[in-house]
Design brief:
The complex is a heterodimer of chains A (about 700) and B (about 300). With about 700 residues, chain A is α/β, with parallel strands linked by helices. Chain A is about 25% helix and about 35% strand. Chain A is built from 14 helices and 40 strands. The two termini of chain A are about 65 Å apart. Chain B has helices at about 10-15, 65-70, 105-120, 145-160, 165-175, 195-205, 220-225, 245-270, 285-295; strands spanning about 35-40, 45-50, 75-80, 85-90, 125-130, 135-145, 185-190, 210-215, 230-235, 240-245, 275-280. In chain B, the strands form three sheets. A six-stranded mixed β-sheet of chain B has the order 6-5-4-7-8-11, sandwiched between helices. Chain B has a three-stranded antiparallel β-sheet with strand order 1-3-2, covered by helices on one side. Chain B has a two-stranded antiparallel ribbon with strand order 9-10. In chain B, about 45% of the residues are buried. The mean pLDDT of chain B is about 85. The chains are: A alpha/beta (about 700), B alpha/beta (about 300). Chains A and B meet through strand 2, helix 2 and helix 14 of A and strand 8, helix 7, strand 9, strand 10 and helix 8 of B.
Amino acid sequence: MLTFLHGIFLWGTLAVAIPLLLHLLSPRRAVPVPFGTLRFLKAAQKRSSARIRLEHFLLWLIRSLLILLLVLAFALPVLRTAGFGGWLGRARRDVAIVLDVSFSMGYATPRGKVWERALDAAIAIVQGLHDGDRACVFLADEETRPLIELPTGDLDLAMSLLREQQPGHASSDLRGAILAACDALEVDPEREKELFLITDGQEVPWRKLGAADPAREMDPDLKPFFEKVAFFVVSVGSPRPVNTYVEGLRVDPDLLIGGKPGRLVVTVAGSGEDRNLPVTLSVNGEAAGRRDVLIPSGEYSDAEILLPSLPPGTHEAFVEIPPDGLAADDRFHFLLHVFDQVPVLCVGEPSSVYFVRHALDPVGGESRIDVTSLAPGRLGEETLHRFVLVVLCDALPLDGQHILALEDYVRSGGTLVVFPGDRAGVSDYQSFNTLPAHPTRIDNVPEDEAYSPLFASESGDDLSLAQNSVSGITLSRRLFFKVPIENARVLLRTREGHPFLLARNDGDGLVLFFAVAADRSWSDFPLSPQFLPVLHRAVRRGSGVSRSLLVAEAARELALPPGTRPLTDGAAIMGPGGEPVEVRSLREGRGEIIYLQDATTPGVYRVGAEGSPLLAVHLPPGESDLTPIPNTVMARLIGGDRDRVVTSVAEMLQAVEAYRIGRPLAELFLWIALVLAVLETLLANRMSRTSKTLQDTIIVDASGRVSESGKA
Amino acid sequence: MSRGITDLLTDRQLQLLDRLVLQSRYVVEGSLAGRHRSPLKGASSEFSEHRSYIQGDDPRNIDWKVLGRTDRYYVRRFEDETILRVYFVVDRSASMGYGSGPLTKYEYACRLAAALAYVTVKDRDAVGLYLYSSETNAVLPAKNSMSHLNSFVRTLVQQQPGSKTETAPTLHQIARSVRRRALIVILSDLFDDEDDLVRALAHFRKQRHDVMVLHTLDPRELDLGFPKGGRFQDPETGEEMVTDPRAIADAYREVFGEFLEQQRRRCRELNIDYRLVQTSDEPEKFVRAYLEERRRYA
């Protein structure tokens, strides 16, 4: 059944009569032509009348069809398969709506908010369903959230639930939501299935679907579904979004000590166009600094702002950029923890830690490094996460429990320095998994090899070591390492190439392993010029646990990072708006992880009624990159149907209509009209062509003698 | 005011025709001595045949040598020579009034007749005229004077085409009226019933006339070269017909070709000299070419 989108043009079908009228009127318009006799004309006409009639009929038919097709093409005909469906019994359909609820959906343009357009599209989809059709809705958040998990025929419920939604504070997992929606559509295989992904066309979430790979076709996990499901992408975002956001920041030094200067490095990124804008810093509610920065489109720039001298304690701060289309990411909250002193733990007998203690605090308190000494057997009495650096000086062998605690400390960001000693044999190191290498033997160094300069390797920049020879030391004993394990590197070597100092990153932390003891029993290294700076750089590097910057990305389940001050039992956590935040603790391995539930609102989360700050939460910066994905790429990733990628509600309705009721036929009609026009030209030319005449077939000589052509 | 031969032919054309001769292919009968062979045996010096003597023969014609050899009487016969009488039978029916060029078929036929008549009279032969359409409209007896030629031309010029064609009955009538052998020149488009027409021509041949048919046609009638369709009108019947000549050109070529072929074939069977002339040809050139050829074959 045909329907017409511009039915008014159907009046033009009356023009089909024009060729017939012209044909009927043509004898009246014919010019009188005197001729010798009609006798032969009549005979010729009679002889060719059948052919002429056929040619005229064909010509009339072609011209009438040509006009008819042109008129119909203007009327935009659509072949309504649903019309047949209604006769045979209309097919029921299940529709899944995947709604992108990432915070980038809150982008506002002068024409309106992206989110409102997305909701309009979602509601239009539900409104377009008929009795018996069903819908399910999935929200693509950082995790898939089913709003209506299984297709329901209660379309009013679906619409009311959709209207209640707001964009979230996280990025979106489109792939997961699409897979969940496909699973939901599998419930009833007899129904027609449609899946609508309503998103802002931001490239970031499409990367999981392979957007970054130009050769990537449809996701193999999705392909089996898409053979049965019609997939529409409704990309309601701005085609050229402009957004600037704080991608990250760091404090230099990592540990801020009361009264000591520091600086804040703010990384600002942007998409859309080059921008020059001010970055302002507020600490404890007061303006604390400002820096102008130029951000090229698609790139980032660092803005360095000097931090004011802050007293020890935790300070609330944020950096801010001028408002733009996406307001949610214009302010970046964080906490600055200013230490009074830097806590360092030295584990070992007093004689073993002597040089280390004095190297860390050579003048008694001026360095602000608070060194705690502990005998190896009392290691369990201290909370390791309180210290920025733990130094083991001939502390092995240790209990397995203590070794596990040390490994956990390292993996959660702590820095561990290990000096060997006479107490431990090589076997005592084997169970210490976080070490860069396990020693195979303890060598007594011959006297002729005792003196050796130390050479820094290329990877020595962990501790800012110079890459040439640093100085010489005299060795009497040392650990011999055969093969460093994964992620390990040699920072210092002896002249013979033996590793002297190894390092390894494990988890978020760092382990430094010396080949000699921390006292003079194995070498004169404690007396060498490198000893003190190496330790101080290790302290500086070792701020991983108790760093000054306290901030975390928003998440549905936010695990409190190490270094967050411990919570007392029953302590209430309040969100940025003063709303209580649910806390859940999970014992994992040897420790306990505290999770904040629904910590998705950016801002400062506080503890208890007094409101002391606990943690600052910021939005995931990746989601702020609004670089759009081209429609062609989206089409490729959903199976190559360009018509199924639409950018407005109107386009979506048209595409859906075209899919559900058939394709528009205007283009087809125009092609047929073109073919008919060519046929008409050929036929008309054939009818008016100059054929051979008698003059061509007979020869009449000058004397009037007649002979046939070729017989002359 | 008609002046005569110069109404139809220019001095230049007449000059071109001066040295030409129209000869009959057969013997003709005339009342005056001339240069054409006559069926009558007369007093000319050219021996023809022997014949047994019968009473009444001139004894001067007895061949004494034969008598001496055979002891029988034979008389010698000699060929007679006479003038040629040429009758022009010109069709002035309405169809002859058609012309796509500067001349209608009738005007062209008049020019041809005048040219041939001029050649004939100049050679001291006689020309006569039958002008007909549905009936005989004008008759001029055969005479061989220039004044007669001028009358001949004036008669042609004064008459205009305008009636239906009745060629066959008219030719029968003419055949009956011309009793002595002569050269009959028919100028017509022959748009008549073919069977009747051939019977009329046969009538001439039966009377031993030398017959020449100058089938006069307009080039458009041959090629139907109209650029577009129209309402075609028949000048004799007044009928009209709407058609597109381009659409029926092939069929017309076949039909008209068959018509021409039939005329040509039947004339050949009757030993009639059939010529196709088109109004686009120059009359004096046709006459020259035709008479030259006729002289060669005479």
